[in-house]
Amino acid sequence: MAHVKMQTARTTQQEPGPAAEDLMKQLAGVTPKLVMMFASRNRDHNALNRAIRERLPQGCRFVGATSGGEMDNEGIYYGSVVLAAIYGDFDVGLGIGTGLSANAVGAGGMAIKKACDELGVRQPDLDPRKYVGLVIDDGFRFKKEELLLGILEKNQTLVLVGGGASDDNQDPSKQSALIHIDGEVVTDAVLVALFRTNAPWAALRTHWYLPTGDRMTITKVDETHTRALELDGKPAALRYAELLGVEPTELEFGKPQGFAVRPTALRVGREYFMRCPWKPVLEDNSILFANLLEEGSELELMKMGDMGEMTRSFFKDELPRRVTNPQAALLFNCGARMWYAHSTGRVKELADTLRSAPTAAGMNVQFEIYSGFHINTTLTVLAFGSN
């Protein structure tokens, strides 16, 4: 019988020493192999790293990230520190890739190589039934697609899940992200935590959208491949507004009739990977996306479902179907989901769904990673169980 379990702790203590003491008291009786930290950006992360590590059991690995909000089974918070102490039948290898902005493909390759080296396994030999990679990147570098190419270059079957380290500061000019790996606190980097286990596990994702059957084709993009200049041969913002029956000024994410309510998704087989537009550029009627775009690709128009019920059903029904006797869930929740929940007054409803999850900890992230895709407006999850 194999199992992976988790115990969580949370503190609002501001000073590193008292915060670490409070967290460790809540984890008393557990001897973790890996501790993950999700913490608000406005802290002394170097001091917090030292304070927590010196209190961890010998041999315990430590990783973490700054968040756009912290999560556990009791709710969604801002300004706190949440720890996930993971223990049971697994091994973990850690790798960090730096210089993400300059060479994202190289940074991804560096991170997975280091993680594999720690486990004594060659990248081509990673068995997708026993290995899964958790990825946390500096989300403000906008390099997910490139770093994923580096991680998957030597093994495209490896399952990946995670999201971008973030910041709950709402001023884009002041946002930054940090990543922890044992004694290091770095920026402009990507972390890979490679798990090896015989326990049940699954990488999952959920969103609150439904397909409509209406499709559009990206017929022209700009040189950065992040702006759609034309959809279906027409100026992108004008075509999207036509499909929604609104003015282009109403499209921006967060507006009541815009992208958040009727986003787009990339259909792969029977699955829909959310790739919601960000905002219209009214000067030339283009549309800015967070992910890279390819001319000729087809996107499906989605519609809003029941936010609370679809998330609750995911935790109560889908997750237990996918993972035998679920014991632990690491959560990477899109910051845009929280933005929309705040704007519609439904944060409590969304937070209450976490009570239906197995033992859970996580953060609001700057875009998400799932099975080699850069996605958004999605909750991605790495869940473990027992057999």
Number of strands: 26
- Helical run tally: 8
How far is the N terminus from the C terminus?
6 Å
How many domains comprise the coordinates?
2
Rounded radius of gyration (Å): 20 Å
Q: What is the structural class?
A: alpha+beta
Oligomer: single chain
The major sheet is characterized as: 8 strands, antiparallel
Shape: globular
Domain FIST: 31-235
Pfam families: FIST, FIST_C
Domain FIST C-domain: 236-372
Organism: Hyalangium rubrum
Overview of this protein structure:
There is one protein chain. This protein is an alpha+beta fold. It is built from eight helices and 26 strands. Strands 14, 15, 16, 17, 18, 19, 20 and 21 form an eight-stranded antiparallel β-sheet that branches. Strands 1-6-2-3-10-11 form a six-stranded mixed β-sheet, covered by helices on one side. Strand 2, helix 2 and strand 3 (61-67) form a beta-alpha-beta unit. It is globular, with a radius of gyration of 20 Å.
List the helices and strands and how they pair.
Layout: E1 4-11, H1 16-26, E2 34-40, H2 45-53, E3 61-67, E4 70-72, E5 75-77, E6 81-88, E7 90-98, H3 104-119, E8 131-138, H4 144-152, E9 159-165, E10 179-181, E11 184-186, E12 189-197, E13 201-206, E14 209-221, E15 227-231, E16 234-235, H5 236-244, E17 264-268, E18 271-274, E19 277-281, E20 286-289, E21 298-304, H6 307-322, E22 326-334, H7 335-343, H8 347-352, E23 360-365, E24 368-370, E25 373-375, E26 379-385
Parallel strand pairs: 2-3, 8-9, 22-23
Antiparallel strand pairs: 1-6, 2-6, 3-10, 4-5, 4-23, 7-12, 8-12, 9-24, 10-11, 13-26, 14-15, 14-21, 15-16, 15-20, 17-18, 17-21, 19-20, 22-26, 24-25
InterPro entries: FIST_C, FIST_domain_N
Protein name: FIST N-terminal domain-containing protein
Domain FIST C-domain: 236-372
